[in-house]
Amino acid sequence: MSLRKFIDHTLSSWMNEEGPESDIVLSSRVRLARNLQNHTFSTLLKDEEANAIIEQLEKQLQSLQEQHDLSMLKMAEMQLLEKRMLVEKHLISPHLAERSSYGACLLSSDEKVSIMFNEEDHIRIQCLMSGLQLTKALEKANELDDAIEEQVDYAFDEKRGYLTCCPTNVGTGLRASVMMHLPGLIITQQMNRIIPAINQLGLVVRGIYGEGSEALGNIFQISNQTTLGKSETDIVHDLTIVVQQIIAQERLAREALVSTMNIQLEDRVYRSLGVLAHSRIIETKEAAKCLSDVRLGIDLGYIKNISKTILNELMILMQPGFLQQYAGAELHPQERDYRRATFIRERLNMESFKE
């Protein structure tokens, strides 16, 4: 398979879009957790009831599938590598991928919508948008939520709101998050001061793949922790305000770096570009660090003929699942490091970069 064909068939269309504040905010995500009335929570489901829920939802949501161009993907019918690629694209959770016998999802053709079944909750509605578009993502999620609720009965309490498997999701069931590229705050060593302040506001900072993951390539996921006692609109509004403040701080940090160490910063950017353009073996962490530097160089105007969406692409395409799909075989870690370096070099060549 050629690299171009591989990219065209595996990248979500929204990854190549440039939304608001896309120089810093890579993506916005809204997720709604819902459960069916009179059914056991997913974590305690037996296979028979879990499969019955999938059959019920597939039948009841047929019109929703047709209206929103959604395709049903059943975990039991997918290869391990296919599920891993969906996780790497943030379209399903690792938890759902592990539920090989009774998990499923409805996925839109543009991959902006993913509705997971029998994950931690019976239904999890996820909407992804490029840049800072939390309000738009919430509107889409609410539209889908209303359509689903017309067909099924949700577990709902008048005082507590939507009932969920995890107590921290009770209430609105909403998790809103943004993926942010923050190299300026890392280089100027301000991020360690900012994270505690964010936590005090009821928000949480995680790595690129959420809870327990690393902030590869200076990419952080910032999301709400509180779901009870606030409306969905208020949660999204409050998160947006904080994100806008972080954007302002990141821009100030970048301006300070340019004014105080411009040559050193430019040298750092081009050294990283050199590593990516010429390495024959590269590990995930080093590749992520270099890609972050190159993306910063693009944003600051040092590099002019490489698309800024390259970070969005390569941070996903260099992951183990995609590398093995591209290779057409299962790879050992050292083989993946070789394939990763080759993949990145080829992708940079496609940008027709010339020194």
TrEMBL record:
Keyword vocabulary terms for this entry:
Allosteric enzyme, ATP-binding, Coiled coil, Kinase, Nucleotide-binding, Transferase
One GO cellular component, as annotated: extracellular space
Motif, RDXXRA motif of the pArg binding pocket involved in allosteric regulation: chain positions? 336-341
Q: How is its activity regulated?
A: Appears to be allosterically activated by the binding of pArg-containing polypeptides to the pArg-binding pocket localized in the C-terminal domain of McsB.
Q: Which residues bind ATP?
A: 27-31, 90, 124, 175-179, 206-211
Q: Could you tell me what reaction this enzyme catalyses?
A: L-arginyl-[protein] + ATP = N(omega)-phospho-L-arginyl-[protein] + ADP + H(+)
Supply the EC number(s): 2.7.14.1
Q: Which GO terms describe its biological process?
A: phosphocreatine biosynthetic process
- Residue ranges of the Phosphagen kinase C-terminal domain? 24-253
- PROSITE patterns associated with the record: PHOSPHAGEN_KINASE (PS00112), PHOSPHAGEN_KINASE_C (PS51510)
Q: Which residues form a coiled coil?
A: 47-74
Please give the function described in this protein's UniProt entry.
Answer: Catalyzes the specific phosphorylation of arginine residues in a large number of proteins. Is part of the bacterial stress response system. Protein arginine phosphorylation has a physiologically important role and is involved in the regulation of many critical cellular processes, such as protein homeostasis, motility, competence, and stringent and stress responses, by regulating gene expression and protein activity.
NCBIfam families for this protein: PRK01059.1-4, PRK01059.1-5
Q: Which family does it belong to?
A: Belongs to the ATP:guanido phosphotransferase family.
Name the record gives this protein: Protein-arginine kinase
Organism field: Peribacillus faecalis
Q: Which gene encodes it?
A: mcsB
